[in-house]
From TrEMBL:
Pfam families xref list: Hydrolase
One record GO biological process: DNA repair
MF GO annotations: phosphoglycolate phosphatase activity
InterPro entries per the UniProt record, alphabetical: HAD-like_hydrolase_sf, HAD-like_sf, HAD_sf
Official protein name in the record: HAD superfamily hydrolase
Organism, as annotated: Geobacter metallireducens (strain ATCC 53774 / DSM 7210 / GS-15)
Keywords for the protein's UniProt record, in alphabetical order: Hydrolase
GO CC annotation terms, alphabetical: cytosol
Length: 228
């Protein structure tokens, strides 16, 4: 696959696992929340994990999955406050700032498009300071649909005036890339190194990168080649 930047006007970028290391989110939901939930309810950690993991799975591919208010109410915990306890784990992936600067220098529209809840966005933008690089930031909670729904990408155009044929989407979710493809977005990039703690595996369906600086062409060209 070849990415020709002369053919792209708008770049849509996911946040967790794509621009930011998903180690924070995985640790928070799989370890930190169960630890606090077990302590609050006086139950063994393994029991807490079994209960919580089932509850989390029940809300996959819905807006509740990332709704901090929903989980605060359901679990009886202050989820935004608990995030602050481990915010030192929030980190930007290598190559991201370099890529965002490249996009800015070439006058591309850059939109952060995420399923993340507004309160999560506030914490992560304050911690990482990458917010000013974007033309705008859109949460699926504002759109009213998760990115797993094909209709999301049409609804998004009410906020982001993009041409699907001249738009690139960077994601660590093959599901979300699939819905974007079904809608008609042309340039799709899978981020295989979504967490610093996992061994990256390329997608069999979408062009894959480990780091976003792989999309920056050399000075004498406007394109880069990727596999597949």
């Amino acid at each position: 696959m070849t990415i020709d930047w002369n053919q792209i006007d708008t770049v849509l970028l996911d946040m967790d696992g794509t621009l930011l290391d998903r180690h924070f989110d995985d640790h928070f939901w799989l370890e930190h929340v169960p630890k606090r939930y077990a302590a609050k309810n006086g139950i063994p950690l393994d029991t807490a994990k079994k209960s919580l993991y089932a509850q989390f799975r029940s809300q996959e591919r819905t807006l509740n999955w990332t709704d901090l208010d929903y989980w605060s109410d359901r679990l009886g915990l202050d989820i935004p406050l608990l995030k602050l306890e481990v915010e030192h784990l929030i980190a930007v992936h290598p190559g991201v700032v370099e890529f965002l600067l490249f996009l800015r220098q070439h006058a591309k529209e850059i939109w952060l498009v995420t399923n993340a809840h507004g309160k999560t966005l506030d914490i992560k933008m304050r911690k990482t300071r990458i917010g000013p690089y974007f033309t705008g930031i859109v949460s699926a909670h504002e759109v009213g649909l998760p990115k797993e729904d094909v209709a999301f990408w049409g609804m998004l155009r009410k906020t982001v005036p993009y041409d699907p044929a001249r738009t690139m989407l960077g994601e660590d979710s093959e599901t979300n890339l699939g819905t974007a493809e079904a809608y008609g977005i042309s340039h799709l990039i899978y981020v295989s190194r979504y967490s610093s703690t996992v061994h990256p595996l390329p997608s069999e369906r979408f062009a894959s990168i480990h780091y976003f600086n792989q999309l920056i062409p050399s000075p004498d060209t406007s394109s880069v080649s990727l596999n597949p």
